[in-house]
Specification:
Shape of chain A: globular
Oligomer: heterodimer
Helix content of chain B: 10-25%
Number of helices of chain A: 8
CATH topology of the largest domain in chain B: Jelly Rolls
Strand content of chain B: 35-45%
Order of helices and strands of chain A: HHHHHHHH
CATH class of the largest domain in chain B: Mainly Beta
Largest sheet of chain A: none
Number of strands of chain A: 0
Radius of gyration of chain A: 19 Å
Distance between the termini of chain B: 72 Å
Shape of chain B: globular
Number of strands of chain B: 31
Number of domains of chain B: 3
Structural class of chain B: alpha+beta
Radius of gyration of chain B: 29 Å
CATH architecture of the largest domain in chain B: Sandwich
């Protein structure tokens, strides 16, 4: 009865790593239908090839490698925009992303606390961007600010969150 | 502009799809040359992924076995994807080589067990049974095949489940009841194949190989070492180990019937219920008990769980949403949690150095990231969160002054454990400096304490998580299942005591 657990094992590993895959793809590809397709294709390929995955080896690294191929295939198929990040850069990102020992729940709790600690302006900005899905251009139009100011505000809000998350996650350590 | 600011701006532009070729080249250059840039890039990408799933409506990588349409937009949140995945993993067997094929992980369900002893550990009543052997030393069980065929097996017996409509019989005594939709139900032995044609029959096989097949209804086809016989109602075929066959009259009394088993199980349940009743009364008197609910003796209209105290107190649980339902035994009550609003609220003023949490629960599905057993409101210093994660882990989360930790017993709830009564117990022992999780009276995981803290319950809930803290919206954590006993002790119970609590409360021995 070893085999029936294989599906369960896949689901567990996939759940543990889906945000990692998401983070990688959305760092390399604009948000939208293409990114959705890459994510979907990646999960399908992961599933199809799961038979080749060796239990006990690094699932995150394996999954990110497959996500990377999907992103590359997308870059190749795309006609309009030629410029893209170099293979070396992408490999460096993939490697770093695979190496982070993140625990989903730690992050979730930390983020709750950090979001609650943000000032109202920062929080509303992030709400608009992440809940509302607004682009920088839309946010600039809506607020009457320049795109430059919106970028700056987005950087500030997210850097504050990052600082707070770093503090919380390192305070709690691996426990 | 600092390099991080520039990096951030380029990342945001990439996200929006407004980034220009020259900016991509600059991004590449920064990542290649600037120290720490890759770290920052990855950290911020991760944060965005957190924000997208926490705040947003954006897709997470979705269940690969879902229908695939390349142009489809997946506006499904992470939680939805996660619960879908877990629901599928809980009920279906996924086969990597055939992504489109889904099948059940079992072939039958164990629906009754009476006075059973097994070789090794046997399955619990309510479990889905996969292919494999049922090695019964003694007692009676009823197995319902997914085809609809029902088999009562009398121990000692050795019966192997081959498929949803076939078994392999090594020895013992069985009665098969086969409804029309399961016609063709087959039992094989070393020398015989018995194919049912919509009937009820008995089959006895001893170790030496002497066999008897009795037909009580309809007819049965028998192939004994190449000799084919069709046996009509009222007849029995005896086949000796050396292949000599003779037909005689069938004897229905020689095999336990479904209704016999049902009556005997009901008697057994009554006596176990009564046995538990005495133990429950003793538990109520135990000075170490901080909160105890027996879920017994409550009228159907009651919206309150009486605690162990004779007088009314804040320890009494206020029932919100839940329905009364049947518990471990017929006549024993349990509280059913189904909807996001369902919960029991209580208030406890105690502070504890050690504690023991114990409950009889029947978890029907793990359809949320967390299914609450007992959680204190919020998540602050002194908080205690006892819950089951979607991957089937039993978890005790403890929040200290500056840190928190999850003490996990992994893989407690496999699909086969859903829908059956299970005894959960977790001990937080400050003196021994460890947390121990027990399942059905047996320790399954021991973990060292990470830090010291004083535990406070205050306002708490069973089966859910109460009152989101100001400014934060938390996911619903309602249990999908039933709870039929709950105790919280202000001390660490010993392993023998927990084994005893399990034994006296088990639905069947």
């Amino acid at each position: 009865m070893g085999e029936p657990d294989r599906g369960e094992q896949f689901v567990r590993l996939f759940l543990q790593n889906q945000k990692r895959i998401y983070a990688l793809v959305l760092a390399l590809v604009p948000r939208g239908a293409d990114a959705d397709d890459i994510l979907q294709e990646t999960s399908a390929v992961l599933w199809q090839k799961f038979g080749e995955f060796e239990t006990g080896t690094n699932f995150a690294a394996w999954a990110l490698r497959i996500a990377r191929y999907q992103v590359m295939a997308y870059y190749t198929s795309r006609k309009r925009q030629r410029a893209r990040l170099s293979d070396e850069t992408i490999d460096a990102v993939v490697e770093k992303m695979a190496a982070r020992p993140e625990r989903e729940e730690d992050r979730s709790f930390a983020l709750d606390g950090c979001l609650a600690g943000l000032d109202r302006g920062d929080r509303e900005l992030l709400e608009l961007r992440y809940r509302g899905g607004a682009t920088v251009g839309e946010m600039a139009r809506q607020s009457g600010k320049t795109a430059f100011a919106v970028y700056k505000a987005l950087n500030r809000a997210q850097d504050r969150l990052l600082g707070c998350m770093r503090g919380k996650l390192s305070a709690e350590g691996a426990g | 502009m600092s390099e991080h600011d520039e990096l951030g701006e380029l990342m945001e532009a990439l996200r929006d799809g407004t980034i220009e070729d020259a900016q991509i080249a600059r991004l590449d250059q920064l990542l290649a040359e600037s120290p720490g840039a890759v770290d920052y890039f990855v950290e911020r990408a991760w944060l965005r992924s957190d924000l997208d799933t926490k705040l947003g409506s954006v897709a997470a990588p979705l269940l690969p076995i879902a229908r695939r349409r390349p142009s489809r937009r997946f506006m499904v949140g992470l939680a939805a994807a996660a619960s879908l995945l877990a629901a599928v993993s809980a009920t279906l067997l996924l086969r990597p080589s055939h992504p489109a094929t889904l099948s059940y992980e079992g072939v039958a369900v164990l629906t009754r067990a009476l006075e059973t002893t097994w070789e090794g550990t046997g399955p619990a009543v309510g479990s889905v049974l996969p292919q494999g052997r049922l090695a019964l030393r003694s007692g009676l069980i009823q197995v319902e095949f997914f085809s609809g065929a029902r088999v009562i097996l009398e121990g000692p017996a050795d019966f192997e489940l081959v498929s949803a409509n076939e078994g392999r019989f090594r020895h013992g005594r069985l009665r098969a009841v086969v409804p029309p939709q399961a016609q063709g139900f087959t039992v094989r032995t070393d020398g015989m194949t018995v194919v049912d044609r919509g009937t009820e029959f008995g089959f006895r096989l001893d170790h030496a190989g002497d066999a008897e097949v009795h037909v009580f209804q309809g007819r049965v086809e028998i192939d004994a070492k190449g000799v084919k016989t069709e046996l009509p109602v009222g007849r029995a075929l005896r086949v000796s180990r050396d292949g000599v066959a003779q037909t005689v009259a069938s004897d229905p009394e020689a095999f336990v019937t479904v209704s016999d088993l049902s009556l005997r199980s009901a008697e057994e349940a009554r006596s176990r219920f009564a046995l538990w009743g005495g133990a429950s009364e003793r538990l109520r008197q135990d000075p170490r008990v901080a909160v105890y609910y027996s879920f017994a003796d409550a009228p159907d209209w009651s919206r309150e769980l009486r605690s162990q105290r004779a007088e009314r107190s804040p320890l009494d649980g206020a029932i919100i949403g839940c329905r009364w339902a049947e518990g471990r035994w017929s006549g024993k009550k349990a509280l059913e949690f189904k909807c996001p609003g369902d919960r029991v609220r209580l208030q406890d003023a105690g502070e504890y150095e050690s504690l023991t949490l114990m409950s009889w629960v029947r978890v029907d599905a793990l359809d949320r990231p967390f299914s609450g057993l007992m959680l204190t409101d919020g998540w602050t210093s002194g908080s205690v969160h006892w819950q089951i994660t979607q991957s089937g882990t039993l978890r005790l989360g403890i929040h200290g002054d500056k840190q928190y930790n999850d003490y996990d017993a992994p893989a407690v709830f496999a699909p086969a454990q859903l829908g059956r009564w299970i005894h959960l117990c977790t001990v937080y022992d400050r003196d021994a400096r460890e947390v121990t999780h027990y399942i059905d009276g047996r320790p399954v995981r021991r973990l060292p304490l990470k830090f010291d803290t004083q535990l406070r319950l205050g306002a708490a809930e069973l089966g859910n998580w109460g009152v989101p803290m100001q400014g934060n919206v938390y996911a619903v954590r309602n249990l999908n299942g039933r709870m039929d006993e709950f105790a919280l002790f202000g001390k660490a119970l010993r392993a023998e005591e927990i084994a005893g609590l399990y034994a006296v409360g088990a639905p069947a021995p």
